[in-house]
Amino acid sequence: MNRNGIGDYSYAIEFDKAIHPAVTPGANLDEMNRLSIQKVSNSLDSLALETCQRIKLYQWVQENIGLATSEAVYGPGNPFRNPEILASFWRFEPGIVILLLQFLPSILARESLRAREKIVKAFTHYFRTGGHKQGSALVRARYEHSASYNISLEDTARFELGGAVAILTNTVPCAFWVLWHTISDPAVLQECRDELQSLCKVEYDTVTIDITEVKISCPLLLSILQEVLRFHGTGNSVRVVQQEFLLDDKYLLKKGGTLMIPGPVQHTSKAIYGESVNMFDHKRFVRSEGKRINPIGFRGFGGGATLCPGRHFASTEIIAFVALAIMRFNIRPVCGKWVRSTTDNAGMQATVPPPDTDVEVEVTLREDEFAGKQWNAILEGSDKAVELVAEDMNKH
Predict the structure, then answer these.
(1) % of the chain at pLDDT higher than 70
(2) Which of 52, 161, 299, 396 sits most deeply, having the most CB atoms within 10 A of its CB?
(3) 3-state secondary structure of 391
(4) In 29-164, at which residue ranges do the beta strands (DSSP E only) sit?
(5) What is the helix, strand, coil percentage profile of the chain, to 5?
(6) What is the mean pLDDT of residues 175-200?
C-alpha cells in the first residue's frame, strides 16, 4: 500500500472510486434517500402529536438529521441509535482540528479524545457483528475497500469515524440554515409553499408528496440550498501541486506542495455575483432566460478531485426535511423576531459553520386544507442528477 496518500493506487486515491457507485444517482442512492426521508417524516409525525411545542431549533435539527442520516447509512445496527454515541459524536467534533494537528490533544482536546474512543468502540462492535452487511451500499463499500487493503478491524472502525464526519458535520448545519432562511422571511416562506402546494396529492385522509418531483420542480428550495453554501460556506479545495507552475506570473507553485483554495474567495466575488454579493438572495441560483451564474464561481461542494461524493444524498435529505417541515408546521421565534446568529465561534472542521447561539421557536400545526391529514413522503427515484455544481451540468 502506498502510505504517502498521493500515489495512483494509494488507499485515499482509490477510496473515492470505491464508494462512487454507492452515491451516484441510481438504485443505491435511492435506497439511502428513501430511508432518510422515512426517518425525517417519522420525526415530524412525532412533532405533530402536540398542537404547540417550544423547541431549540438547531438542537432539534441536529437530533433529527443526525439520526435520519446515520440510519440511512448504517442500517438496523446503526451505532448512533444509542443516544450516548450520538452525543459523543457532537463532543468529539469540536476537537477534530486539534487532533489532526496533534497539538497537545491530551490537554486541548481531552473530551474529544474520550468521545472518539467511545465511538470507535461502537464501530468496532458494529463491524465485528456484521452490522455493515445490513447497512447501505455506501458503508459496505467503505468496509470492503479497507478489507482489500488488509486494514485491521479496529483501524477500519477508526477510518469509519471519518465517514461519520463526512455525513454529519456539514449536513446538520446546512439543513439548519436552509430551514432558517426559508422560515425567517414570510415572503420567501410563502413562495416556497406555493411551489410545493401543487406537488401535494390528496387522497382521502392522506397527503402524498414525491421528493423526486420536489427536487425537479422547486427551483426556489434548490436555490436556497445553493445560496446557503455560498453565503455560509467556509470550505477550502486542497490540491497537491503535480508540477512546478508560475501562477499569474507572480507565484511559484513547487511540485509536491499543497495548494489551498478558499471557497469564500470565489463566493464573495463581485465580478461573479454582482453588488448584492454580501446579501442572502434566495433567488440567486434560480435559472431564468438571460440569467445564469458562472458555474465555476460556485464551489459549495468543492470541485474536481475533491468534489463531495455525497452531495446528492445530503441535498435530497435536506430538501425533503425543509419541504415537509414548512408544509406541516408554522415555526416562529419565541422572542418575536428572527435574529440571525453569528458563527464566529465555529471550528474549522465544518465547511458550513453552525450558529453560535440556538434559537427557541414555537411550533404549531398549520391550519390549511391539509390539516388533520396523514403525510406520506415518497421517493420514486431517478438516475438523473440534480444540477448542483458545474460537474453535474457537464454530465448532461
Answers:
(1) 94
(2) 299
(3) helix
(4) 52-56
(5) 55, 10, 35
(6) 97
Q: Which residue has the cell 432539534?
A: 60
On the question of pLDDT at 7 being above 60, the answer is no
Instruction: Determine the 3-state secondary structure of 361 from DSSP.
Output: strand
Please write down the long-range contacts of 195-202, taking CB distance under 8 Å and 24 or more positions apart. Answer: 195/219, 195/220, 195/221, 196/221, 196/323, 196/326, 196/327, 200/327, 200/370, 202/369, 202/370, 202/373
Instruction: Please list the residues that pair with 264 across neighbouring strands.
Output: none
Task: Render 307-355 in DSSP notation, one character per residue.
Answer: --TTHHHHHHHHHHHHHHHHHHEEEEETTSS--PPP-TT--SS-SSPPP
- For the beta carbon of residue 345, count every other beta carbon within 10 angstroms: 12
Block residue for cell numbers 500515489: 7
What's the pLDDT band for 1 if we cut at 50, 70, 90?
Answer: very low
| pLDDT mean across residues, the chain | 90
Summarize pLDDT for 60-69 with one digit per residue, the tens: 999 999 999 9
Sign of torsion over alpha carbons 231, 234, 235, 240: positive
> What tens digit of pLDDT does each residue of 218-253 get?
999 999 999 999 999 988 888 889 999 999 999 999
Residue 96 belongs to what H/E stretch? helix 96-101
